[in-house]
C-alpha cells in the first residue's frame, strides 16, 4: 500500500495550477449542484439509488458513479458529504472504516447548517482533516449558478482555513468562518436559512391559494411579490426598518374586519390569522403601530378555535 499511500498523501492545493480533486457522497440537490460546479475536478460520485446512479451516468459519462462507499477505487483531495443531516455521522463512520487510512491527510467536508464538526470525529481520529462548510442557499439541484455569490458558514481547525476558503472562493462563494457565538447557536443559524428560503416559498404558496379563491392569477401576484422582496432586501442591505405596508401597518380595522368576514369560516382563516398576528407583533415592536392599535388588530385577527383545519 505504501506506493499508493504516498501518491494519495499529496498536499491539497487550490492554486491556479493544481485544483483539488473532488469526490461527492450524496447526490441530492446540493450534491448535484456541486457536481456540476466542480466539473473536471470531480473524480467520482456516490449515490445509494440505482435509478439515480443511471441518471448520473448519463449526465456525467466520464465520471465513475458508485452506489456504495465500498466501490470507491481511487482517492481525491476533498470528499464532500452531502447526505441528509441524520446520515452524516453514520456515513462518516462507514467512510472511515472502509477508506479512512487511504485518505489520511486528505479533507472531508459535511455541508449541514445545523450540525458541527463532531459528526466527523470518526474521520478525524484517522488523520483526515474535517470541516463543516454550509452553503447558505436554497438549491433545486440542476443549477450550479446558485452557488455564486453566497456565503458559506465554515467550522474548521485554524490550519485548514486557507484550504477551505480557497475552495469556496473557487466556486464563486464567500467563505465566512463562524464565530464562537454562531457555533453555539448553530441550530438557530440554520433556522434563519429555513425562514429566509422555505418560509418565503410557503408564503408565495399561501398567496397563490388566496388568489385562487379570489379567481386571480400570477399576473397579479408576480409583480407585487417581486417588489416586496426587493424592498425588503434593500432595507436589509441598509440595515433599515423593513418596509411594512398594508392594513396592519395602518391599523386599518375596517379592512381587517372585511378580511375576517370573508375568510373566517374557510380553511384559509387559520393561516391568515397566524400571519397577521406575527405581522402585528412586528409592527408594534418597530413602532409602526401603537400598543392600543396592536390590541385592536390582535382582537380582529385572533384565531377561531372552531374554524376548519387547514389541509
Q: Could you please describe the fold and organization of this structure?
A:
The chain has an 8-stranded mixed sheet with strand order 3-2-1-4-5-6-7-8, with helices on both faces. It has helices at 2-8, 29-38, 50-59, 85-99, 121-124, 161-170, 180-184, 186-213, 218-238, 253-263, 268-285, 291-300; strands spanning 22-25, 42-46, 65-66, 78-81, 107-110, 129-135, 151-156, 174-177. With 311 residues, the protein is α/β, with parallel strands linked by helices. The protein contains 12 helices and 8 strands. α11 (268-285) runs antiparallel to α12 (291-300). Mean pLDDT is 91; it is low at 1-16 and 307-311.
What is the tally of helical segments? 12
Give the C-alpha Rg. 25 Å
**β-sheet strand percentage:** 5-15%
User: pLDDT under 50 segments (min length 5)?
Assistant: 1-16, 307-311
- The overall strand count is 8
Amino- and carboxy-terminal Cα gap: 60 Å
**Shape by Cα distribution:** elongated
Percentage of residues in helical conformation: 40-55%
**Sequence of secondary-structure elements:** HEHEHEEHEHEEHEHHHHHH
Descriptive key words:
single chain; 311 residues; alpha/beta; disordered C terminus; 48% helix; elongated; 12 helices; disordered N terminus
Please write out the topology:
Layout: H1 2-8, E1 22-25, H2 29-38, E2 42-46, H3 50-59, E3 65-66, E4 78-81, H4 85-99, E5 107-110, H5 121-124, E6 129-135, E7 151-156, H6 161-170, E8 174-177, H7 180-184, H8 186-213, H9 218-238, H10 253-263, H11 268-285, H12 291-300
Parallel strand pairs: 1-2, 1-4, 2-3, 4-5, 5-6, 7-8
Antiparallel strand pairs: 6-7
